[in-house]
Amino acid sequence: MRKNCPHPPQILDVIDGTASDPPEVLSPDGELREDQYSKHRHAYILNRLPLEGRLRHNCLVTYCEYVLTEKAHPLHRAYHDTEYGVHSADEKVLFERLILEINQAGLSWETVLKKREGFQKAYDGFDVDKVAAYGEEDVARLLGDPGIIRNRLKVAAAIHNAKVVQELRKTHGSFAAWIDSNHPMPKDAWVKLFKSTFRFTGGEIVNEFLMSLGYLPGAHHPGCALYK
Known about the structure:
Mean pLDDT is 81; it is low at 1-49. This protein has 14 helices and no strands. 29% of the residues are buried. The protein has 2 domains: 9-61, no CATH class; 91-212, Hypothetical protein, domain 2 (Endonuclease III, domain 1). Helix 6 (91-104) packs antiparallel against helix 11 (152-172). It has 228 residues and is mainly alpha-helical. The two termini are 18 Å apart. The protein has helices at residues 9-16, 39-47, 51-56, 63-66, 74-82, 91-104, 109-114, 116-122, 128-132, 136-143, 152-172, 175-182, 187-197, 203-212.
């Protein structure tokens, strides 16, 4: 789950008055030291704020916390509890997850979850062979379907990537077997591999795809009941 915090951590500290920032992050006059700032320190700082404060400023650190709040749409809890971080070798599951992660780019995960049923219908239940055979009429149909995210590049990526999965069947037996044959690898290596294999697979998309399937760590917070 990708979340962007619009507030610098020192501003949150002033607003909430509940956390003291590590001295290496702030200068003596309280300004953010860009040379020492990192996402890891940002997460550390936010983790010291109470949940209520982070909710108020839309700066939650973990998806696990978010799904337990009243603010979260019920779709989040269902996905978190039954799918997020869960390994699967099912081709349709893997292909769907890849397409959904690609379609989230620039949007919220909630938007994708709300349109998930629409995606399943529009893309023939994420049947790889059917999607790989899509032609111009199908592209036009998808771009005119309000039940999905209508982006020409993302639609083209789905069709192209379906054809790639067909090739992976020939070389490795299955999509899952191809992933397993390269596991484990550090994130940077995964990103490089996916970029050279699939289309529209940037670093964050690859990270979320693999993390959501348990190939990379981080799906669940140590305090979550589902953490392993």
